[in-house]
Amino acid sequence: MTGTTNNNAVDEDSLWIHKYVDSKDTQYLGHLYEKYKRKIFMLCVKMVKNTEEAKDLTSETFIKAFDHITEFRCGSPFPPWLSRIATNLCIDHLRHGSRVKFQQIYSYETEAHTIDPRPLGNQNHLRHRILQVLKQLKPPQRRCFCLFYIHRLSYQEVADLTGYSFDQVRSHIQNGRRKFKILMEDS
Asked: Closest Cα to residue 20, out of 5, 39, 33?
């Protein structure tokens, strides 16, 4: 029964997308927005931990998705595609926010001459090593690993977001964790 419901949702979403592409009538995109705005907002809140930023990121997600709607493969589930856009925007936002905070802290502390640069160097080295190791994971492992460990999503939330089955998510996380540990020990 669940498969039928999912197929109906896919068909309905694809129908709205086709109608929009054919007519350029934004009411069809409005259906998709109304249907998925809460899910995307909750995903953004969970990732950025700030409701105002999550509202902005939700809007950005739909703007980007609708700008690139012709790239969506009709017949595929729309929610994972949309969630991937939201996740990428949130990750970019978090990276940018972290960079700004680090620059603010660094400039404040260096101006005050109260910082020993060695710990910062060690932190940067560790961060660089972690990023290098993450790049060596297979894309599905890296995606699941980061969503689970960095963004603290549950296995089921990762499955919903990526479109992988629960068992695939568990496997990607376990294999990613094993490979991550080995690579960190070797580096």
From this structure: 33
The token pair at 93 is 């936002």
Q: Whole-model pTM? A: 0.53
Q: What range defines the domain where residue 187 resides?
A: 122-187
For residues 62 and 54, give the distance between their C-alpha atoms in angstroms, rounded to a whole number. 12
**At 158, which amino acid appears?**
V
For residue 76, the cross-strand partners are 74
**Residues 170, 130 share a domain:** yes
Report d(CA 117, CA 163) in Å as an integer. Answer: 43
Q: Residue 82 in contact with residue 61, Cβ under 8 Å?
A: yes
On whether the CB atoms of residues 77 and 10 are closer than 8 A, the answer is yes
Q: Which domain CATH number covers 9?
A: 1.10.1740.10
Express each pLDDT in 116-175 by its tens digit. 444 445 566 777 788 888 889 898 898 888 888 777 778 888 888 778 899 999 999 999
74-102 per-position pLDDT tens digit: 778 899 999 999 999 998 888 776 433 33
Pair (100, 138) in one structural domain: no
- Considering the domain architecture, whether residues 101 and 148 belong to the same structural domain is answered as no
* Burial state string for 124-141 with b = 16 or more CB within 10 A and e = fewer than 16: eeeeeeeeebbeebeebb
Residue showing tokens 């190791």: 133
